[in-house]
Amino acid sequence: MTPRRDTNWWGWGDPAVTAALDDEALAVLRERIGDLEPWPLATGIEDFALPPAEPLPAALSEAVGVENVFTAKEHRLRHATGRGYADLARLRDGRLEAAPDAVVAPPDAAALRRAIEVCAAEGIAVVPFGGGTSVVGGVEPLRGAHPRLISLDLGALREVEVDPRSMTARLGAGLRGPEAEAALGEAGFTLGHFPQSFEYATIGGFAATRSAGQASSGYGRFDALVTALRLCAPAGDLETPETPHSAAGPALRELAIGSEGVLGAIPEVTVRVRPAPAVRRYEAWIAESFEAGGEIVRAMAQGAGLPDVVRVSDEEETRGSLALSGPRGLAGRAFAGYLGARRRRDGALIVIGLEGDEESVARRRALAVRALRAGGAAHLGQAAGRSWEHGRFHGPYLRDTLMGMGALVETLETAHTWSRLGELHAAVGAAIRGALDGQGTPGLVFCHLSHAYPDGASLYFTFIARGRRGAELEQWAAVKRAACEAIVAHGGTITHHHAVGRDHAPYMKAEVGETGLELLRAAKERLDPAGIMNPGKLLP
Ligand SMILES: Cc1cc2nc3c(=O)[nH]c(=O)nc-3n(C[C@H](O)[C@H](O)[C@H](O)COP(=O)(O)OP(=O)(O)OC[C@H]3O[C@@H](n4cnc5c(N)ncnc54)[C@H](O)[C@@H]3O)c2cc1C
Prior knowledge:
Largest sheet: 7 strands, antiparallel
Shape: globular
Strand order of the largest sheet: 15-12-14-13-17-18-16
Helix content: 25-40%
Number of strands: 18
Mean pLDDT: 96
Structural class: alpha+beta
Number of helices: 19
Distance between the termini: 34 Å
Strand content: 15-25%
Radius of gyration: 23 Å
Bound molecules: flavin-adenine dinucleotide
């Protein structure tokens, strides 16, 4: 099957979709980050220069079928990067130093096994590729010690087998989020996994990166949904049993989840599913401050229970979201009046979402409303919540627009315990602001709290600044480094859900310690003795 080519090669998603900012938003942006110099694409796909491809052995074509090996420039280019700012900056500038020699798309799990065996025997590096939405350099074609490299596109593995009685489903790695949801929906179920990249990321990618979705506070992170999986490693297949739980030693399933392609490729996973919700209710509230909003979420998580979606924007993100895309004109003035009357003009926006049957949504909402009111939040109604719900997969298109205008736009995330979340929020925010100032490009730094647990929550930062023309990657690297160092210094995790990839690998020692690293290296050496699987990722 030909690898998919339906997405924008230099940006996000559907090439027909664009996002625009109105004059009011542009004025705010100009006031806060200065004048921008437009950053057009340096080249079209036809003129994009890629390094020459190394020839690959005939045994590889024989393993998967010659019709499943793709060496055309467009395929190599589409598999050469993920979708982080640094990836998009290099595509925009028309400069890629590396690309796979070929894209190999096994039509089934047996062909996948044969392909990995040939690559192991021939010393060819293999980068498993799902939707290519990694934002941490996860699909970067790093060769390590190997002169040849393939991108192993798992997009053809799209089988679905639902077990309605057990409420589980076996899902092929190559299914995108909407494809999996559509197939489950036909049987009356949902997976409930909705990361912002939902429309283009795949089931295999979700498992390989320990992804978390926007509704993970209710449905659970992807790792919590997986009951069993198969890992196709060079040394053999690791298959975990389909049982609800097992006490047979440490969970090997957990070794494969989050392994980011460095141990092998995951052809399929079995997941728990839920009845498709009859009711979806999204609404917005506003707390007095980010701290007060966090306390409300903590009370929910440690008490009556969390809504499926819960997120609290800090004051800067609340102000920024309202300025860039809030209500305008008469509606805007009425909204400002409403906030003023409740003394919440500088408050923190809270979005909650509840999904399920009518009775459970009503019951859980009543508990959530009690916590919100007890914490001093004011109701903003369903329209604002619905507008967040409807726009929730649209943000990445706005990033393309902002980059085209000449802005640096990036996101990063972490998590910590409730006791240290405030400290982490202040430290990372200050590090990003300081680094942007240091580059001579002061910017907007937004944060929201999401993915809440009884013991803590994640923090998600977005920053927007004027791009330093010609030095975009250096500017990005300086800010990213400052943020990562602040996270590590304050004991946060280097990633709550974006994974490690290439960008966070240097911080893995701080995360798991020297013994932890040795253990991961030992697993890799056992499963991938030739070191062909995704070199340069996860492990420093
Ligand atoms: C705009 C945007 C928003 C995002 N929002 C979220 C979010 O809300 N939550 C979240 O968790 N993440 C988010 N991400 C990050 C990304 O979408 C996730 O990491 C996602 O799980 C990656 O899936 P993918 O199929 O695109 O994997 P890819 O990007 O193709 O690969 C990611 C990593 O997994 C490996 N891999 C992929 N498939 C397999 C497989 N079958 N077997 C073994 N290894 C494999 C790759 O080698 C690579 O190391 C976002 C990214 C973008 C660009």
